[in-house]
């Protein structure tokens, strides 16, 4: 129930509630007395649905974490590369790599990229199964093996259902003395690193799935209102709320 409620918290929901509220006020008092409210809602709508402002906010937030450079790490140490889960589908017709959601697979690929440049590592996959089936951690392990990682180099955390539980499960299984590289989306990593810090571990961030890319062929200026821009703003808004909740 909490998960469904959390999904309902978005700018889209607030805009709809705002429209219903203003519509009710217009019905009761006429539109002239509600011009300011209409202006404010319209302004926020344009800010959230045209690309420039969402892009600036997300790019600034994602810049808090930099791409992991394994060659700069201590090669005599063992690093635990914790790849956080982000969804999967148990379709038996498909290889494990195709059973992972694209977000999870990209995180796993980033974890493997780092692992291949370290002489000593453990790849840690995590996340449970909502329906009591094979866990996401297990499918991610199979995918990692398909991509060339030896099975003895992989550990699993099969019980967590969210980021806080993933960190808690890691600490419970491995303690707080391991060197940890945590792999997740760039937008999500500040919160994951913060949770590790609360647990007593200074984790090294390894971002993937950047929502904003700033190459010469990428346009991040003003656009017409679009669902894609609103979705980007929603992702930023939800992540800020989750960071605030988890930081308490």
Automatic annotation (TrEMBL):
Domain DUF218 as annotated: residue spans: 80-239
Record-level GO BP terms: Gram-negative-bacterium-type cell wall biogenesis; peptidoglycan metabolic process
Positions of transmembrane segments: 6-24, 36-54
Any one of the GO CC terms: plasma membrane
UniProt entry keywords in alphabetical sequence: Membrane, Transmembrane, Transmembrane helix
One Pfam family cited in the UniProt record for this chain: DUF218
Transmembrane helix in keyword set: yes
Keyword Transmembrane helix in record: yes
Coiled coil (residue ranges): none
UniProt cross-references to PANTHER family, sorted A to Z: ENVELOPE BIOGENESIS FACTOR ELYC, INNER MEMBRANE PROTEIN, PROBABLE PERMEASE
Protein name: Uncharacterized SAM-binding protein YcdF, DUF218 family
Record lineage: Bacteria, Pseudomonadati, Bacteroidota, Flavobacteriia, Flavobacteriales
